[in-house]
Amino acid sequence: MLRVVGLRCAACGATVDIGATHPWRCPRSGADRRHVLRIVRAPGPHTPGDDPNPFVAFEAESAWAAYAEAHGMRAEARAALVHELDAAVAAVAGTGFRRTPLIRNAALSDALGFSAGGGVWVKDETGNVAGSHKARHLFPILLHLRAAEVLGLAGSVRPLLAIASCGNAALAAATLAAAVRWPIAVHVPPGANPAVLARLATLGAQVVTCPRRRNDPPGDPCVHRFREAVAAGAIPFSVQGPENALCLDRTLGFEIVEGLGDAFDRVFLQVGGGALATGIGDALAVAGIERPVHAVQTEACAPLARAWTAAAAFGDDAPAHWAACMWPWEHVGNSAASGILDDETYDWVGVWEAMRRSGGSPVVVSEDTVAAADALTRGCGIDADPTGSAGLAGVLELRPHLADDDRVLVIFSGVRR
Question: Does this model's pTM top 0.70?
Answer without folding.
Answer: yes
